[in-house]
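New here. Invent one.

***
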Amino acid sequence: MKLFFNRFFIMLKRSITQPVNVAMLVILLLLAVIYRQIPASQKSLYLPVAVICEDEDPDMNAMVEDLCTTNSIFHFYKVDSKEAMYDEISAKNANFGILIPRGFTEKALNAGTDTPIQVYTTKASLLPSLSRDEIFTHIFRFVSVRVMKEEIEKSSLFEGIDKTKLFEAIDKVYQDFRNGNEIFRVEDTTGGVYNELTREEKVEIPVRKLAGLFILTAGLIGIATFLKDSDERLYLRLRGGERYYMRLLHIISCIIPMSVITWPVLWITEGGNGLLLLGQVALYTLVCIVYSLVLSILIRSSSVYQKVLPILITMAIILGGVLFDVSSFDRTFRIVSMFLPTYYF
C-alpha cells in the first residue's frame, strides 16, 4: 500500500507540472472567475407577430389597427400577403404569423367555424397561445356590442320597443364601462425603473462541455505518459497485472486534478445542488478512466498513439458539444459522437 501511494503521488506531482495540464486547469479557473464578473444583461422580451387581414369588415379592420398599436409583450404588425408572412417567419423577423381570412367576422357572428383565424408557428415560436388570448380580447371589444344588437334584432322579446334608443343606450353604457375607472384605473409611471418587459441573461459559456473535454484530454495524456515510459523501458520488469496497474495509475493521476477543479467551477457557474454536481463529475470521471484504460489496452505502441491522439482530441472538440450543439447534427454524426464520453457530460 505504501508503494502504491508513493507511486501515485510521484505521478500526481508529475502530471500537475505538465504544461498542458497546467494550462487546462488555469483556463477552467479563469472561466469561473470571468463568468462571475460578467454582469447579467437585461434583454427585452419582444415577440413580433406578422398579421394579414383579408376580412373586409370595418370592425375587424379597426380591430387590427388597434392591435398593431397595442403596447404589450407582442408587437403585431401588418404584412400584405402569405408569401411576405412566410418570409418574415423564415427570416426570424416574426415569432409567428396570424391570418384573418375573408368573411371571418360574418361567419363568427353566426357561430360559423369554417373560416377560423389561422396561426402559423414554428418550433421556435414563443407563447402563441397567449397571443390568441390577446387577439380574442380585441375581437370581443370590437364586436361584442354588434353581437348584442344583432341578437336583439332577432329576438321576439323586444318587439314594439324603439330599438334605436335602446341601441344608443347600449352604446353609451358600453363606452362608459370600457373607458371608466371601475374595472381598470390606468396610472402613468413613465420615468420609473422599468418601461418594458425584460429578463436577465448571462453570456453563454460552454464551461461544462469544456471541463468534460479537459478531463478526457487529461486521461489521454495519461496514456501518452505511460507509453512514453514504457518505450524508455521503465516498466520492463513489470509483468501482467502490474503493467495494467501502472497504466491505470498514470491515467488516474492525470484525471484527478482536473476533476477536483471541475466540481467547484461548475458549482460557481451553474449553481444548484452541490452534491448532485459532485456525483455527476465523479461518474463522468469514472467513465473517462474506463474509456482511457480500454484505449490504452487497444493501442500499445507509442508511435501509433501519437498519430491517433490528435484525431481523438479533434473529434472530442467537434463532436463533444464544445463548439457546436450536438442536437443540431444529423443522425450519423450524433451516433459517432455517442462513442465519446464528452457526449454524456
About this structure: The longest strand covers residues 47-53. Residues 16 and 22 are 6 Å apart (CA to CA).
